[in-house]
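Aggregate trends can hide what the representation actually does to any particular protein. In the encoding step, the backbone of a single protein was reduced to a row of integers, each denoting a local shape. The record that follows shows the chain in one-letter code together with its fold in token form.

***
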Amino acid sequence: MFADLAEQLRIREQKGLRRTRQIADSSQASHITIDGCDYLAFSSNDYLGLANHPELIASACDGARLYGVGAGASHLINGHSAAHHDLETALATFTGFPRALLFSTGYMANIGMVTALAGREDAVFADKLNHASLNDAALLSRAQFIRYPHCDLAALEQRLATVQARRKLVISDAVFSMEGDIAPIRRLIELCERYHAWLLLDDAHGFGVLGEQGRGSLFLPGSAHPHSPSLVYMATLGKAAGVFGAFVAAQPEVIETLVQSARSYIYTTATPPLLAHALLTSVRLIGQDEWRREALRRNIAQLKQGLQSSPWKLLPSVTPIQPLLIGDSVEAVRISQGLREQGILVPAIRPPTVPQGTARLRISLSATHQPDDIQRLVRALHDLAPS
């Protein structure tokens, strides 16, 4: 048994696909300490720089004094605190939905909502570049699992028109986590309404960053506001919001169905109320601190300008996710390691996370990155380019 596992690990290492963990010795920021060494980091989802915000730290401390450290039970026993309830109300208001429901993670939210809304007699239609959690959710639902080419709505429509099912669900990232591009949300909604399908939208990387006041991808010009009743919206709270968790927002009947049937909600201890208390502050800061999104936009523009003459091309993205396409996995690891030796952290993303031949550096920008930080990264990448 162990020899077989060891051989599999050896092959993974040989292909440049073996992953390793790093130990962070500092709080999350654009400059962090990993394994005792200081780095300039372009590897975090803390897009707005809120993970170490003093007001959130103070709110978490206040929450601990009010509610203790642990929730002590699942939401449906006696673990649903006033902090959870207030945060759900605030998130529903912020995103423009009648109700919202907290989950421990985005992975659990996707598993819960897909499996609660689809079963053996149903069909799930998924973009081929969706996050792994959406794919796993579709498989767990036991529904017919039908994938369509990335953002190809003609192909999706053909499948919606020909597949017979009791219930149809289209599931898609809003911002694709490894590409940085944005789904055609309004057209997806129109298609789902035409074919009487639900649309489940994962906005993990758009919430807090995109749209009016950072309310997410639904609030981009020409997107989906006012919301369609067929839309079920998920966003995470550990990325731009800077804390932990996730939520689903939708019509009351959908949320109540999740409360009654979503196994990843029912059969788990509620997240610590102190985190919900801190997130109330986070939602307020997201809405009021427009300067954070303006700083992100400036950083994105500076990076694009600086890498125009690079032999590697940035994929089209207006989001903090800026993928630099390398192609070969071993080469991507070489460049990532070369950056690390210069004190810069940028992860190499390789198959199976992305398709074969599309290994890349995933540059994640934050509002807290300064112009000198961006320039330092650009110079280092040019130095590592093949001559």
Summary: Residues 290-306 form the longest helix (17 residues). The CA atoms of residues 189 and 199 lie 7 Å apart. The domain at 22-48+290-384 is CATH 3.90.1150.10 (Aspartate Aminotransferase, domain 1). The longest strand covers residues 321-327.
